[in-house]
Amino acid sequence: MQWNRLPLLAGVLALSMASACGGDKAPNAPTTTTAARLTAPVGETPSADEQLDTLRPMLTVKNGTSDQATGARTYEFQVSDTGTFNSAVTAFSSSPAGFAVLVGKTGVPENAAGKTSFQPDQDLQPTTRYYWRARVVQGTGQSDWSAVSTFKTKLVGYNRAGELYDPLIHGETVGQVVGDVTFVPGKGVQLNAVTSHIRYLLPATISSGEFSMDVEGLRANGPGDKAKVFGMQEGQGDFITNDYRVDIQYRGTAGFPPNAIQWRVIYGDADDLDVRYEPDTARRFESVFLLNPSTTYHWKFTWGSAIRLTMIENGLGGNTLYDFGMPAPRGAYTPSPHYTYLGAPLGRSGNESASIPGTIYRNVWIGTQPRPSSLGSALVP
Questions:
Q1: What does pTM read for this prediction?
Q2: Residue 19's pLDDT band (boundaries 50, 70, 90)?
Q3: What is the DSSP pairing of strand 261-266 with strand 246-250?
Q4: Nearest C-alpha neighbor of 200 from the set 62, 51, 342
Q5: CA 367 to CA 270: how far, in whole Å?
């Protein structure tokens, strides 16, 4: 009887081993997913270097393609005031002036009509050349970036607490025109007489900051003695005797010496020599320049605990012709109300110490912070 049970035991053992090993069923093979192969979208609008009349442009691309019919496709857009796109990933980054200069947006759904668009929901910096690009994303796949394209934001100025910008090349100003001026298209505003100037009333006093601009039309051996390029003061009293006078000069043929750059800055009391800052006579005689009226000169004045005037030939990035400053440890620059000028108002010194006829101004910045590096880049060809 025991021998007859051996085949049955063998069968049970074989069944048990098969159950333990899963029987004849093979283990599941790993699932693999192939990333979609995508072509880059093509930028359509704005067209290359287009001058826009908005600070929130609609960016549109022709959709990219995919070798996979299924799976949602989205787009990533990047906008930057430089061609490097540094930090423009998924959020806004602002300039000191508070406008967006780096914009990134992911997850923009593809439009089935063949073109996909994105519009920033924050104002871009005005009068600025921007660079933009886009790419398509599907699952784990992403295309190359589209070719970089450019556009220029609206030519517009503004005047708010702590900062003012005025491009001046588009026939208008955020300041007040005084006297005979001409807006020269693409150039700026031209002062036609010694009494002509542009006046800005700042919403709040700027006790330390930068006042800078581009100026054409300055010529050697011009009229006047202490002729003014630009200035600042408190209120609307006599400019020459003002307790908070900032007086930036390019002296004419009657100057001492002619064709010299000179400046005077007063921190609170025109009669107190301790709060009057200016280069001495020796420095003035070292600061003679025969300026060319067809050349653009970038002027920058900074004030606060120190005072400095810089003048650069051929605009920013050109050759520095004048650069001189000094500490200002006494007094404080606190005019209220705070007025600034392109040219200067006529004071008791008369026509010889007022604006310089023929000067053309553009790209003006006044602010508590240095001028944003890309502000005004739309003005560069």
A1: 0.87
A2: very low
A3: antiparallel
A4: 342
A5: 24
